[in-house]
């Protein structure tokens, strides 16, 4: 166990409430491994049950359809964690996890993860609140898949991406321009549909490419297009 | 607070690890209310944040699309609970809850619910494991909505309903015959589609109505029809 490894767990939000000594004890029981970009970290068929701390890099949680289409569930950056479902309930992996960049993972054995959440209520509460966020997100996605067409799901995803960059003049910037395949896998459609919807939006003046930025020129109108169909 | 109320919390699985005294303390801080069949218990627009213990009866967690179509998420029977997301994260309600039968609910204020899960690790672990089950279920549903057509989603739901009644001769009985509207709201389609798929299955000899029972006559074949498309 290196000093660097102990220090690196300081960046894991989940363990912010633990003492340095408690973190050091955890570090000692973790298995560490580096992954290259695009390398698979968890296979959904694997029988491992560890929770995984993302110490460096960024990972994507996905499933693949029979035709090979990627359905993405979440991206987790350094400081976050994933794989907690199997660590908590002992059940099989619910998804595949792939490194989006070079990544360093600390694997927490399931018994240790359960011990941590049962002896540190603050940690347990964070785990529960994050699971609540995952459930809320999944509920919204099930509603969108059940009630919106693919076009409107692409609109809804652009609204979601634009929201953090919204400005008082009702425009919003998304930088860098999102990759069509990423949008497609988040809203369960094809790249071709994403490309077509984006060029329709550009033609009607609602979005515009400027260098590496996608500018949403009338955020409220785009929100309305989604909510009219959602019924919100 | 009546003896009956204290006793009734004994039936709540979540609190099985607590002492009778601890349960009595909780009972004292709950708000109790009875609901008639079809009455709304939680409005998804409500600003309440209580966790809800189902002491008697049975409830359904649903959302409605703009056109009024019901998308159902979960049924919770006596002994179970719901509404924990808002109690844990203080966020707004993610769904509407309706009484399926006459129902008695004990409302646990959010501060009390958080206190319970942070002082009783066994309770926290059960909450986390149940949330894990909800996430697994939602992930499967998102995959089915993303990759299966409505017909196959109806097939998948019949497989799910038939599984507990599977017999060694590869037949399975579902009693009572499921209501078309219930299947429709679980797999996000219309009653008409469910009726059509069931009559197609009956015509091809895969299912048969016998009184109040739906008999699946070739369970393996039905499973294959789903898995061929899912790619499992």
Describe the structure.
Two copies of one chain form a homodimer. Chain A has 232 residues and is of the alpha+beta class. Chain A has two domains: 3-145, Sandwich (Jelly Rolls); 148-230, Arc Repressor Mutant, subunit A (Orthogonal Bundle). Chain A is 46% helix and 22% strand. Chain A has helices at residues 3-9, 20-29, 84-89, 110-119, 121-147, 150-162, 180-187, 191-203, 219-230; strands spanning 31-35, 40-42, 51-56, 58-64, 70-77, 81-82, 96-99, 103-108, 172-174, 207-210, 213-216. In chain A, strands 1-8-3-6 form a four-stranded antiparallel β-sheet. In chain A, strands 2-7-4-5 form a four-stranded antiparallel β-sheet. A three-stranded antiparallel β-sheet of chain A has the order 9-11-10. In chain A, strand 4 and strand 5 form a beta hairpin. The N and C termini of chain A lie far apart (53 Å). At the A-B interface, helix 3, helix 4 and helix 5 of A face helix 3, helix 4 and helix 5 of B.
Structure characteristics:
homodimer, about 230 residues, alpha+beta, Jelly Rolls, Arc Repressor Mutant, subunit A, 2 domains, 4-stranded antiparallel beta sheet, 9 helices, 11 strands, elongated
């Amino acid at each position: 166990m290196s000093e660097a490894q102990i220090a690196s767990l300081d960046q894991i939000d989940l363990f912010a409430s633990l003492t340095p000594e408690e973190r050091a004890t955890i570090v000692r029981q973790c298995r560490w491994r580096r992954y290259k970009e695009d390398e698979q970290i968890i296979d959904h068929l694997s029988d491992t049950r560890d929770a995984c701390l993302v110490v460096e890099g960024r990972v994507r949680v996905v499933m693949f359809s029979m035709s090979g289409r990627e359905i993405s569930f979440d991206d987790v950056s350094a400081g976050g964690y994933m794989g907690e479902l199997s660590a908590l309930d002992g059940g099989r992996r619910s998804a595949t996890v792939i490194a989006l960049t070079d990544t360093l993972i600390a694997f927490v054995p399931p018994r240790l993860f359960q011990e941590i959440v049962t002896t540190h209520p603050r940690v347990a509460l964070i785990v529960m609140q994050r699971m609540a966020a995952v459930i809320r997100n999944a509920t919204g996605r099930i509603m969108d898949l059940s009630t919106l067409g693919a076009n409107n799901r692409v609109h809804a995803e652009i609204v979601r991406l634009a929201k953090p960059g919204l400005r008082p003049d009702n425009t919003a910037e998304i930088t860098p321009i999102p990759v069509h395949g990423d949008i497609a896998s988040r809203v369960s459609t094809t790249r071709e549909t994403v490309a077509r919807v984006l060029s329709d939006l550009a033609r009607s003046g609602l979005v515009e490419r400027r260098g590496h930025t996608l500018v949403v020129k009338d955020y409220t109108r785009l929100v309305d297009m989604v909510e009219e169909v959602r019924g919100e």
